[in-house]
Amino acid sequence: MTAGSRGFRFSVISAPMLWLAAFFLSPFVIVFAISLVAASDGQPPFASPLLMSNLTFDNYRLLVGDDLYAFAFGNSVRIAATSTVLCLLLGYPMAYAIVRAPQAMRNGLLLLVVLPFWTSFLIRVYAWMILLRPSGLINLALQGLGVIDQPLPLIANQFAVHLGIVYSYLPFMVLPIYAALERLDPALLEAAFDLGCRPWRAFWRVTVPLSAPGIIAGCLLVFIPAVGEFVIPDLLGGPDTPMIGRVLWTEFFSNRDWPAAAAVATALLVALVGPIVVFQILERRGAES
Amino acid sequence: MTGRRSWLLIVWLAFGFAFLYVPILLLVLYSFNDSRLVTVWGGFSARWYVELARNERIQEAAALSLFVAATSATVATALGSLAALALGRFGRFRLRLPMTAMLAAPLVMPEVITGLSLLLLFVTLGQAIGWPTQRGFATIVIAHATFGLAYVTVIVQARLRLLDPAIEEAAADLGATPWRSFLTVTLPMLAPALLAGWLLAFTLSLDDLVIASFTSGPGATTLPMVIYSSVRLGVSPQVNALASLFVVAAAILVAAASRFIKPGAGG
Amino acid sequence: MTQPLIRIEGVSKTFGDTAAVDGVSLEIGAGEFFALLGPSGCGKTTLLRLLAGLETPTAGRIVIDGVDMAAVPPWRRPVNTVFQSYALFPHMTVAGNIAFGLKQDGMARTEIKARVEEMLDLVQLRGYGGRKPNQLSGGQRQRVALARSLAKRPKALLLDEPLAALDRKLRDQMQVELAALQRRLGLAFIFVTHDQDEAMALASRIAVMRDGHIEQLGSPRAVYETPSSRFVADFLGRANVLGGRVAGRDGAFLLLEASGMTLRALAPVDVSPGSEAWLAVRPENVTFEDRGYANRMSGTVSAVAYVGGVSNFEVEVAGGMKLRATVSNRAGDASVHPPLGADVHVSWSAEAGVLLTR
């Protein structure tokens, strides 16, 4: 730090920090506080958390006691996890293919991967709605080709939700993996070949481990938000695919039970703290290299 | 041996792209379908575009969404560039760890959590200090700017890392105070990243359903909110038309951005 | 006696646990061409940055032209820096780069234009004002960096490894130009380098640095011919260093018992008998001929390297030690060039050897 730069540094640091403290951090404190009171009929529809007498753990007891929440939560984690794996299986070879492409094509290919992302997320999920419905295009095509007689249940089930998540989050998987692969020194692979390692094994023993930071980042970028995903299970899922994001939404908008929703949010946040911290450490390490 | 493997990779990549694009392209196709139903092709027609053009509800929502997106993207870019500067140039400073943490978390935080927490903040704030009296434009902008800020920081920081720190030292050495140096030397060099960050924040804002639903209020309906309520009820041909417009706009934007960024990449 | 332009008084700079600069005191006069020389990590660049104001000292003070620089930020100091990477502003033209510092001072537009032209002339880049840095070669960029820093007519110019990024030919050429420029402008030039040839060629005074402090301060000749320590002797050029014990005095020379012999050396300081000491002698002063020199050893030629203008020999003497001798290959020169494996005598005069106590 030079002389005379203290004021500048103070302004530069405090502007974003104050904003984040006010609009990112403090909301979490408030969520926790409101999860500790009961719902009411007034405006706002909850008792004041400032009165000690209003504080209660009832909302959390509800979460623990009612199977719906536990099931929804477990379901969310499971679906998010399998979707992440599927996304990885689809996305890794794509990233690898782009890295192997001639330099001139790479930017174009990356843009093609990112372009769907620039169109509306909602609309893309809606597109799958049209494709997957019993009267949708896929069933239409299959029936038309004579492959099936009755429409397949492709929507309002786990299949559709997985499909939706993989589809929507694919760019988030491809980009970090591409970045990690691009940074790889090709000389490392050449050294492996030189030492007698055949290409397929070299891939598993050199390329994949060295692209691990990208893989982990991609998986976290898909898994964590997918756990709390709302739109996809709402539009593509059905009664047998309860997910915690939907539960929270329903508690809030349909049941008007804000404290319950707050409790769900807090519980979800606590559950995700582990992966989020891992992600932050990864980001920091990536920034320092 | 490698030949066979590249063939496989190309096929996989093509499949991946098909997977990504076929649904969108089908939407575009069906936006020209005269019939309302997907099962029937009623002939080529632009009637849904005409109806879309007459749909006031959608137009109002679109205008609001664009305005919100532009405002929140601008706020996000301003704050994000400051955050990126701090993280990229200030070395170790006392609040570094909390800042990094608070900038990484929004990138992965489920939207329902962010949305709910911000809403509760606004409600509590309204009770405590009287503002905001009503949720709407301002609250959505604040919400979108907050997560946009995290994305902008990533993009700007990535670019800042590639710039020679000696350049800013040279500016100081030649007589520029830190603010002058930031405004006349650093920011111009970061221009492509600032633009990319702004566009990303703009898109994320335009696209957001969940957070807007939580933080908006009566009279402030964003485009995604309108689309969502249409789409829940089933197929909506006007939404198909809207989808095509989105695709065309996105394609134009991306094409323009790539042509703009490439020549300036020398830096 | 006039005040020196720059006074560095007991300056230290610590980063975490390590002291990059450790209690350095130094005076530099206006118009000096001064070199900070040393291996990487010795603190020379940190010291330069402390002068520029890009770092603040942990202890001590820096006075430039009578003014204590303690609270003075880099943008208000009367010195300017040429950075190793040149650090030209990529989004501005050459003229824009040069004008930058003048704009910060609020100079009038017409004056700025005139000064920029003057600077372009000075570095022989007339007509290049409209180009952008990425359209210039390395050597041209360096000149722009020079012009940019000189535009404000600083009291001293600080240069951080100015020639490191240039290839051999360009470097030699720039050395000559830098020297001419400095003479013409009469400014103090303070430059950092790890290249001892460069330091000796350009500087009027050299500070040899090591581990954050100054090992020796002096003219190139003084530092080369009378090094004050083994480090300095070995860092500037090559030196033969023989270790032993001081045996006594003989007039102006000290006697050293080393390698089983008694050697005579010049002793800049008096050393008590019995203490550990070393003798340093440059290879060019070691000869195979018999000239009646006081210091004489016998051995076998263990290596010969013909490098064009000279030949470098390695002679293994008693005790396994290898002495280096450099012999000129001047045409018509009758100097002895013994072949590999030959038994030879090597000798050097008493005045050629320097006694070192550390």
Q: Count of DSSP E strands of chain B?
A: 0
Mean pLDDT across all amino acids of chain C: 91
* Helical coverage of chain B, percent range: over 70%
User: What's the quaternary structure here?
Assistant: heterotrimer
Strand order in the largest sheet of chain C: 6-7-8-3-9-10
Give the end-to-end Cα distance of chain C, rounded to a whole number of Å: 33 Å
SSE order of chain C, one letter for each helix or strand: EEEHEEEHHHEHEHEEHHEEEEEEEEE
Radius of gyration of chain B: 23 Å
Supply the number of structural domains of chain B: 1
Number of helices of chain C: 8
Would you kindly provide a written description of the structure presented here, covering whatever features stand out?
The complex is a heterotrimer of chains A (289), B (267) and C (358). Chain A has two domains: 31-65 and 261-289, no CATH class; 77-256, MetI-like fold (Orthogonal Bundle). Chain A has 13 helices and no strands. Chain A has helices at 6-34, 58-65, 67-100, 103-118, 121-132, 137-144, 158-182, 186-194, 199-210, 212-227, 231-236, 244-254, 258-288. The mean pLDDT of chain A is 87. Chain B has 267 residues and is an all-alpha fold. Chain B has a single domain, classed as MetI-like fold (Orthogonal Bundle). Helix content of chain B is 79%, strand content 0%. Chain B is globular, with a radius of gyration of 23 Å. Chain C is built from eight helices and 19 strands. In chain C, the strands form four sheets. Chain C has a six-stranded mixed β-sheet with strand order 6-7-8-3-9-10, with helices on both faces. In chain C, strands 13-12-11-14-19 form a five-stranded antiparallel β-sheet. Chain C has a four-stranded antiparallel β-sheet with strand order 2-1-4-5, with helices on one face. The chains are: A mainly alpha (289), B mainly alpha (267), C alpha+beta (358). Chains in contact: A-B, A-C, B-C. At the A-B interface, helix 1, helix 3, helix 4, helix 5 and helix 10 of A face helix 1, helix 3, helix 4, helix 5 and helix 6 of B.
Summary, kept brief:
The complex is a heterotrimer of chains A (289), B (267) and C (358). By secondary structure, chain B is an all-alpha fold. Helix content of chain B is 79%, strand content 0%.
